[in-house]
Amino acid sequence: MPLFEIETDAHIMIGWADDREGALQFAEENYPGESVKRVHQRPRDVWVISKRLLGIENSTDPCNTARDCLAKAAGDKVHAIRLYRQETGTDLHEAQLAIETNMSLGW
Fold first, then answer.
1. HEC sequence for 26-89
2. Residues in CB range of 30: below 8 A, 6 or more apart
3. Residue 19's pLDDT is what?
């Protein structure tokens, strides 16, 4: 089953579907009312996030605090950033970097 990237007004979803129509149906079921801007079949059966694109230039270790915040937020990145800021007192940029780094490391 191919992997599709589906972009709506507010979300980018990654999911498997039998075909383009199945991907559109997935978006409509999960985010009704949002218009689909783009549907793209990924060339491989994997989704890759560039660490350089996220601003991660050096090798980093997983951060237990960031991972705990991601777990408490059930994977909601924005909520995890808020929790991380509350727990560590870091600014928004540093909290976002910590959370996104840990997401890219396979949280």
1. HHHHHCCCCCEEEEEECCCCCCCCCCCCCCCCCCCCCCHHHHHHHHHCCCCHHHHHHHHHHHHC
2. 13
3. 94
Q: Return all residues near 72 (Cβ < 8 A) that are at least 6 apart.
A: 80, 83
Report pLDDT digits (tens) over 48-83. Answer: 666 666 665 655 556 788 888 988 998 789 999 999
Report the alpha-carbon distance of residue 13 to residue 106 in Å, rounded: 17
Distance CA 42, CA 3 (A): 6
37, 7 Cβ separation under 8 angstroms: yes
